[in-house]
User: Fold this.
Amino acid sequence: MALSMDGLKARQLAEFSVPAASVGVAAGLVAGGLAAFVGRPIGEALLTGLGLAIPLALFGAGYAVLLALGKIPAGVFAPAAVYWVIGFPLSLLVHSVVTEWTVAGTPGLPAEPLKFLAFRALLSMGFAIGFIWMHEQLGRHWWPRILEHNPYSLRVVKQYVELADSLAERKAATDRHRTKKRRERTA
Amino acid sequence: MDVTSKTSEVPEEPAAAAVTDRVWKAGRLEPMPIRPLPPAPPSLHILGPTVFLVALGVGMGESYMWPRLVLVFGPDIRWLFMIGVTLQAFVLLEMARYAMATGESIFFGAARVFKPMMWFFYVAAILIYIWPGHLSAGAAAFEEISGIPWQVSACVALVFVGVLFSMLSVIYNFLEKLLGFLIGFLVVGTSIIAAIVGSWDDLAQTISGMFAFGFLPDKALSDVWFPILVGSIAFAGPSGMQQMWYTLQLRDSGAGMGAHIPKIRGLRSADEAESMPSRGYMFDTENPEEMKKWKGWRKWVTFDALLLFWGITMLVTISFTVLAMSAARENPNVANLIEGGDREAALKAMSDAFASAGSPILGTLFFAFIALIGLNATLGLFDSFSRGQADMTYYFIPGAKRFSMSRLYAGFLWGVITFGILILLFGPADGPAGILDILAFLSTFAMGAYCIVLLLVNNKLLPKPIRPGPIRNVIIGFGAVFYLGMLFYSLVRFGVVVG
Assistant:
């Protein structure tokens, strides 16, 4: 029973993480797709893309899980920046190892691995802005769909409840105002 | 994401308001009725109307002109970019002050002070922005990827934009979402490319160069490079009249008193558009509750100015500079081509350098991003231009009120599209060679001029409690002197406008 509960939770968390993982997959697959487009062997293009897509998608999903569990607030930049300062350089390290593997035949670390990581950690800030931006764009369409059976989705959407409320209120107020004016005009 | 729909509400007008109708007299035109200010949105938000400014601002200046200067003069020249973008962030905040307090565009504000100033912007906008040259860089990059001749893709893009904007119910909401998504993708993508091909040293030099205040080698003061430098500073972030159009997007997003102004609709739903009020509104600045809401709005727009506008513009330009530096290291020929100023050859060489250096996909990806930047700018530019001209036409050309604002918007949109297609097929895309200098002059002059307009409208037309403080005024005043001073220095000293 406990096992199936855990299984259910994991499935719900995975479902909640779809938008976050998609950002990573998109980043990697665009890279792989373009490699195929410019005429690289399919296998090489696929590996290059996956080498980046998988780690970014996994880290993306990790971020979403923290969000779902309420460990970090929704839509706020600072926690995302801290998260990706670790996740982004590590993802690119994996990508570098995989690329080395496809080119040289054996996996290998980049020269000066610490400098490699530090540089990417600095750039991660930019990635974090883009990530949180796209994540929210995709999530806005995805979470409301799974709201009914996914408590994590419900919890996050509730964080936006104040905003959603004002949406409804504003719409109602505007409509009331317009109907009133229309009535006045026709009268 | 519509700012207001997500965050604020239009308060019901108190019944008394219609009867007593207190007004705020601003300038010579119709006074503004006092209405309630909508509550400010919580600071938690990702997107806002600033996305338009980012889409317009992150263009050739960031992706080409500044990387070029870095290769010629070294990374230390970037302190001028830092000043240019920071100044633009303050301009953004001051543009927002007037637009959010009144729901009027800055053009309307200019007309309240002195009508000919508004007419200058009306004519300048047509002269500067009617030429479809801005499409060429993006479409040329697309040609590199797809092989489709750039004139074809540019014409198709023009018609597509026209049809799309005509079919939409409310244009602003759709465009904000689309541009938001595209910019998110651009930011993620450029971070990844820069992370793959760049190095620690490139980044360290690029960033430290931003603080090398005062660095100006003799070569930069030559007749060849000074006008280019002036042009590049003017193109750091949003250039020309883009900041002025931002006030219209703020209004349509419903920020501040803009919530009381109806939205512009696509041609298909133009009949549903409500009639525009003949002027903006003011809120009661004597009421502490209203002032509290106003502070909330200022906080909201400051977040936009700092993180979204300043942060993303900086990030994209840092990424592209890192890319240019690593391309030049990879292939010294790139540096020569970039310095030589042939934009297409330089971008192609950069793409080749990435393709041969890292993974071959990078070259294509690089072009894809140049094309994406072009698309963003085109979408933003057509919308903004039509919005600005429709606004001024509606309010200030006698008889224009017969047409709704949405119809005027559609008229300008299709006008500029038709003219654009004709020029792409038969004429010079950037404009006739003989007037190129005049257009470059007008574009930079408009920036100095809007700083002066900002000082006037914000200090003369707004109630005292919401006027800018002395520091803000000094910064905007510095902007006017900076843009106009450099423009005229270049003109008098070298006889050249801007590069």
Summary: Residues 2-186 of chain A form one domain. Chain A has a mean pLDDT of 78. The CA atoms of residues 35 and 41 of chain A lie 8 Å apart.
